[in-house]
Amino acid sequence: MIEFYSGLSSAIKGSIIIFVILTISTLLIGIKAKALDPNKTPKGIMFISVLFVETVNNMIRPMFPKHFNKFAAFLMTLFLYLLFANTSSLFGLTAPLSSLNVAISMSIIVFGTIQVSAMIIKKPKRRMKDLMAPNPVFLPLNLIGEITTPFSMGMRLFGNLLSGSILAILVYNFTSYFGIIAGAFVLHPIFDIFFGAIQAYVFFNLFTIFLSIAVED
Known about the structure:
Layout: H1 2-6, H2 10-34, H3 45-60, H4 68-86, H5 100-131, H6 139-215
Helix pairs in contact: 2-4, 3-4, 4-6, 5-6
């Protein structure tokens, strides 16, 4: 098991570490949430957790008037992973989405979720009718769009995170010790928190929109 883990790329290792930390953290927060008094305002980490869940729910709910309960937990989990994955280099990890393999895997997850969910909710006959809209002649173009959209979303994440890493390395190499200090206090917060969080939100928002189009009437 140790040999298998050591043979993985740094991006995959980072993704596993993030997954384990988020799993343990959410379980502990979930246990504490059950013990909350509904008549009292939560404090500390519980206040942040409740605020985060409520904010994300408010973004998702208008797009899923009929199927909100089916997708809210999954979409929130995906957004939480992307948020921490895109900012993980702040903690010395390699950003998972800076790896092409992880980015393509994310594209596959998006594609599979949209197609399987649409087939289950709308049934194959209705799904085929949607893919042939507004005319059966458009079926090939619609199929190409269904495939290229999630692929381009994954490549967008990969390109933005990789370019951020490259820019930081260039600054380090050309500015010596000053670049290291500037990178620690300026570049990493900008690239990891600001740009990383934005890319996570954009991916989450696009995925939510395309999924709602596929499953809602």
